[in-house]
Specification:
Blueprint: H1 4-15, H2 18-26, E1 33-36, H3 42-47, H4 49-60, E2 66-72, E3 81-89, H5 92-99, H6 102-117, H7 123-128, H8 131-135, H9 138-150, H10 173-176, H11 178-188, H12 192-196, H13 198-202, E4 211-216, E5 227-230, E6 243-247, E7 262-266, E8 284-288, H14 293-305, E9 310-311, H15 316-321, H16 343-353, H17 367-378
Parallel strand pairs: 6-7, 6-8, 8-9
Antiparallel strand pairs: 1-3, 2-3, 4-5, 4-7
Length: about 375
């Protein structure tokens, strides 16, 4: 026999599940829910009549939802008895009422306000991460949703993020709400913002001195196996470093071969202002990124700063060879070929735009092919290595 308090506690625990909240608050198909109360057995009925009577009275006093009763005949009883068997909760409001928890009630009210003011695409996000509705004012949360629907690729046009003026926001609004904005933009743009970063997505100046992963490709030229350092500290690399490979993704670290007097710099993404720094003058530099429009866009950015830059494993012939590993590119970098690509690279960019699966991530290429391409570049081939 379950009391209203016991089943209310179960309903309160269910509220703590993000997926349960989403299902029950955003889908009419989740209702009603039916909770089994349990029926006193014959022994309990005969030996503890008072407890059974109190149990029945408790359920008769319940005003939330619908208590479903069943007529039961016990040998120890003189006549049939109405026993509560199920508690049917028909709506989210009844769920919260039955949970009988003040914190849950406040959260429910705030979520209701949020859902009323946010675009439907953002409802599940806010219900799943209820802290946004609790911590932000109703007006601030609604404004975040409005801004997320307004922002688009390249909107900053090379300005700092704080200079973006949309929806009447102040200069610190985007940074103040950065995490939630990125999550909302990810929903609109299929995860692109998490992949390339907010600054890159908006086309904004990255005002932070980005941390990069630096890995010596041969032992002894640096006093560490790998280390994160700021882009501004790269100029402190010793003069014995003669070759530099810029690698788009840190996930490709395990693919790198051993190369004398060479270092790899990983994870810069689109934050590439540092490639113009004087310390790179006189060094042989190569770029290795994903074979997709974003990878080629980054290649073009570096080439504009370093005209004799080599590319590694970023050619159409390589894409064709390993096309079975390709996947869909969620959102292409743009319809126009970026300045800085060679003619063959520009043709490859246009080719990728037409493909249903126009993305081949660098970390999935065979290690032996990667090693061969790196050694070809190291040995003197100038561009399009590993194609």
């Amino acid at each position: 026999m379950k009391s209203p308090v016991e089943l209310g506690a179960r309903l309160a625990r269910a509220w703590q599940s993000a997926e349960t909240r989403v299902a029950r608050l955003l889908s009419a198909d989740a209702w009603p829910i039916r909770l089994a109360i349990g029926r006193p057995d014959a022994k309990t009925f005969s030996s503890d009549t008072l407890a059974v009577k109190q149990h029945i009275e408790l359920w008769r006093s319940v005003e939330v939802g619908v208590v479903q009763w069943e007529t039961v005949t016990y040998r120890a009883g003189r006549e049939p008895v109405e026993i509560p068997r199920y508690w049917e909760i028909r709506t989210p409001t009844e769920w919260v009422g039955a949970a009988a928890d003040e914190t849950i009630l406040r959260e429910f009210q705030r979520l209701g306000e949020a859902v009323q003011r946010l675009d439907a695409d953002f409802h599940a996000l806010v219900v799943r991460q209820r802290r946004w509705a609790v911590e932000l004012s109703e007006e601030e949360l609604a404004k975040v949703g409005e801004v997320a629907l307004t922002l688009g690729r390249g909107m900053a046009a090379g300005r700092p993020i704080r200079a973006i003026a949309v929806c009447g926001i102040d200069s610190k609004f985007i940074e103040r709400n950065r995490t939630l904005l990125c999550q909302m933009l990810d929903l609109r743009f299929d995860g692109l913002v998490s992949e390339i970063g907010l600054e890159a997505f908006l086309g904004a100046i990255d005002e932070d001195d980005r941390w990069l992963l630096v890995v010596p490709l041969t032992a002894g030229i640096l006093p560490f196996r790998q280390q994160r350092i700021r882009a501004s500290e790269l100029e402190g690399l010793p003069g014995t470093v003669k070759h530099v490979v810029i690698v788009e993704n840190e996930r490709a670290l395990y693919q790198l071969p051993t190369l004398p007097h060479a270092v790899a710099i990983l994870g810069a993404g689109l934050s590439l202002n540092w490639v113009r720094d004087p310390w790179l003058d006189g060094k042989r530099v190569a770029y290795w990124g994903d074979m997709d429009t974003w990878g080629l866009t980054m290649l073009a950015t570096v080439r504009r700063a370093i005209p004799d830059l080599a590319s590694i494993l970023m050619a159409k012939q390589c894409f064709d060879r390993y096309s079975e590993l390709s996947v869909r590119e969620p959102v292409p970098a743009g319809d126009s070929v970026p300045a800085g690509l060679t003619m063959s690279e520009a043709e490859f960019y246009q080719f990728l735009l037409l493909q249903e699966r126009g993305r081949l991530e660098q970390e999935f290429l065979p290690s032996d092919a990667v090693h061969t391409a790196f050694w070809q570049w190291y040995g003197g081939e100038s561009n399009g290595v590993g194609s």
